[in-house]
Design a protein that fits this description.
mainly alpha
Length: 418
């Protein structure tokens, strides 16, 4: 019994131990369940972490792309700064070009004055050559008279021989004597003519040379009469240095040649002057040259023709400012310093064309400055007048003028401001 009780105590102790183990097992199972829940949560968090990492990688890529765009933007800003500097330099070149055009105009005027100063010398040289040619022509006429005199003497000698023969034969000598008297009178007349020509004033000799055609020497490239001397063709109104040079290349070099032109000759010369159609008739070259010849081969002072001052074709009425209006519209924004707002203001006053700005006088500039009081001094500072004049000169056809966009986006290598 005692052994059984001991055994029962031991079993009870083992049961208690087993119950305790069962409690531990239940606790372990609960812990396992808890850990499994924690594991599931951890796995879920791990999935979120992977997604977060993918998002981070995507954001990093977006950041790199953004940084690249920022770099491109900075490069674009730098390029814009460079283009603005180039534009400013181009504007400066444009202003320098206007100054250069003005300087060229001054130099051309000085050159024309220099050529005019040397014209007298050329005229004297031409006159000297003409005198030499006339001297040669006169010598030729003298030689001709001498030849005629020698022929007359020969005929006289022959007549005297005939007279002697007739006297010997008993023929009637009255008719022979009359013939001899006529021959002697002819010789006297020829001698008087020769002396008269030699005693003629220079101008009369020139006139005689012109009337006899002694100045002619061959034909020109145009088939008109040539000449044996050179005159200053610029004396004829309407013939300048360029025209004179052109006429000389065709062989026309004297006033006599111009004066001798008939309708056929005028047509031949006019046809050769392709850039100056109708100039000969319009400026009356033939009539002027004939007047020079009638004046003893000396220039004739001609009263300048009164020219009627024509209104420029672009003008149409007046603007609200009292300045000339225009019959067409240009893009004023092509002019540096005029933007859309300024263009709208100018259009409101009636200023729509480059010609209007290019024609502004000092007083008109002041009036316009007062009207655009928000932009004082803009016209002079940005040189609107000189810019407008340059544009009109470059683009004379109003139907083919550029807009600001086409002007600045010139596709060629040419600088649009140059």
């Amino acid at each position: 019994l005692e052994g059984a009780q001991a055994r029962i105590g031991q079993l009870e102790s083992d049961l208690d131990a087993a119950n305790a183990r069962v409690g531990e097992l239940e606790a372990a199972n609960a812990r396992i369940a808890q850990l499994e829940g924690d594991l599931d949560a951890a796995n879920a968090r791990a999935g979120e972490f992977d997604g977060a990492q993918a998002r981070v990688a995507q954001l990093e890529g977006d950041l790199d792309a953004a940084n690249a765009r920022v770099g491109e933007l900075e490069a674009a800003n730098a390029r814009i700064g460079q283009l603005e500097a180039e534009l400013q330099a181009a504007n400066e070149r444009g202003r320098n070009l206007d100054g250069a055009h003005a300087r060229i105009g001054d130099l051309e005027a000085q050159l024309a004055a220099a050529k005019a100063g040397s014209a007298d010398l050329d005229a004297l040289r031409g006159e000297l050559d003409g005198l030499r040619s006339e001297r040669d022509a006169a010598q030729g006429e003298v030689d001709g008279v001498r030849s005629e005199r020698d022929d007359a003497n020969a005929k006289l000698k022959a007549l005297r021989a005939e007279l002697a023969a007739a006297s010997t034969a008993g023929a009637d000598t009255d008719e022979l004597e009359k013939t001899i008297e006529r021959r002697n009178a002819t010789i006297a007349d020829l001698r008087a003519s020769l002396k008269g020509y030699q005693d003629m004033p220079e101008g009369v000799q020139r006139m005689a040379s012109w009337q006899t055609g002694a100045w002619k020497k061959g034909t020109t490239k145009l088939g008109t009469d040539g000449s044996d001397h050179v005159d200053d063709l610029k004396v004829v109104s309407g013939i300048g240095p360029q025209m004179e040079e052109l006429l000389n290349t065709f062989g026309i070099q004297s006033w006599e040649q111009l004066a001798a032109l008939d309708d056929k000759g005028v047509a031949a010369v006019d046809g050769a002057l392709t850039d100056f159609p109708g100039r000969i008739t319009r400026d009356e070259w033939v009539e002027q040259a004939k007047a020079i010849m009638e004046n003893g081969h000396k220039p004739v002072d001609r009263a300048p023709k009164k020219r009627v001052k024509k209104k420029p074709s672009w003008q149409k009425g007046t603007t609200k400012l009292g300045t000339p209006g225009a019959g067409h519209t240009d893009d004023l924004k092509v002019i540096n310093g005029i933007g859309p707002k300024m263009e709208g203001m100018l259009n409101k006053f009636g200023v729509t064309a480059w010609e209007q700005l290019g024609a502004l006088k000092k007083s008109e500039v002041e009036t316009l400055n007062e009207m655009i009081e928000s932009f004082p001094g803009r016209i002079e500072r940005d040189e609107w007048v000189s810019q407008a004049k340059g544009l009109v000169k470059r683009f004379p056809d109003v139907k083919k003028r550029p807009t600001r966009e086409t002007f600045l986006n010139n596709s060629g290598d040419e600088d649009p401001f140059n």
